[in-house]
Design goal:
Elements (H helix, E strand, L loop, with lengths): L12 H14 L10 H11 L6 E5 L5 H8 L3 E6 L2 H8 L8 E5 L2 H6 L6 E7 L7 H14 E12 L10 E4 L2 E3 L14 E2 L3 H8 L3 E9 L4 E8 L1
Parallel strand pairs: 1-2, 1-4, 2-3, 4-5
Antiparallel strand pairs: 5-10, 6-7, 7-8, 9-10
């Protein structure tokens, strides 16, 4: 008889924030440089539908993707819950007009956003860090803040990633990585790995799937959903 596993408690929001403050403070070159590969892919899809308008970037880090969106004329509100990341992003000398950085967690930022006000909600690798209930609430709020036909564009790690299954199991398809200097501290934030069925379940909360592409080399899902 197989026993039901007793899942480890997910770290609090404050603990996750502290982990990323340590990461950005100690790994100063991480997440710097040109816009991410995902942002290039995303912009091709976004610009085909919207050439301007407000974009909400959740989990913006040091702002390299948000900066590129603003350079192209989008009005960007870029959110991260790390004090260190937002301070560094705000101080960047290349920040263009139309770009605003704000320190907040994703759910709080969404709840403070006007209904139907955004053409795009963008999230690069954020949803891997959210527990189930928080993830479901975030997706519902994304649907609320998007305009009709607005796009939810996000990237998450796939269960095909070799790192899936390593470390302490926190919940189904969620593992806390083995501590290392790159993890930002002795208790790194758990990582969620996504299956096609998980993506389909989240899309069903008020969205229609436009595209989901698995990047075999990086084990990332690139996803575009449209507000139904």
């Amino acid at each position: 008889m197989t026993e039901t596993p007793l899942w480890t408690a997910w770290p609090s929001l404050e603990a996750r924030q502290a982990n990323f403050d340590r990461l950005y403070a100690t790994q100063k070159e991480r997440f710097t440089g040109p816009p991410s590969r995902f942002s290039v892919w995303a912009l091709e899809r976004i610009s085909a539908r919207f050439t301007d308008g407000p974009i909400l970037d959740l989990g913006c880090g040091l702002g390299r993707d948000a900066r590129r969106f603003a350079e192209l004329g989008y009005a960007v509100r870029a959110i991260d819950y790390s004090h260190v990341a937002i301070e560094r992003a705000s101080a960047h000398p290349g920040n263009p007009p139309g770009l605003r950085f704000e320190r907040a967690d994703a759910l709080s930022a969404l709840r403070s956003t006007e209904t139907g006000s955004q053409v795009v909600v963008y999230a690069h690798a954020l949803y891997m860090m959210l527990p189930d209930e928080e993830l479901d609430l975030v997706f519902r709020e994304v649907g609320r803040v998007l305009r009709p036909n607005g796009l939810h564009v996000f990237a998450v790690r796939s269960v095909t990633d070799p790192a899936a299954g390593r470390g302490d199991e926190v919940a189904p398809d969620v593992w806390r990585p083995v501590p290392s200097p790159l993890a930002g501290g002795p208790t790194p934030t758990p990582h969620r790995y996504f299956r096609p069925g998980t993506l389909d379940r989240l899309t069903a909360t008020g969205f229609e799937r436009v595209e989901a592409a698995l990047q075999a080399d990086s084990h990332f899902w690139y996803v575009v959903d449209r507000r139904a």
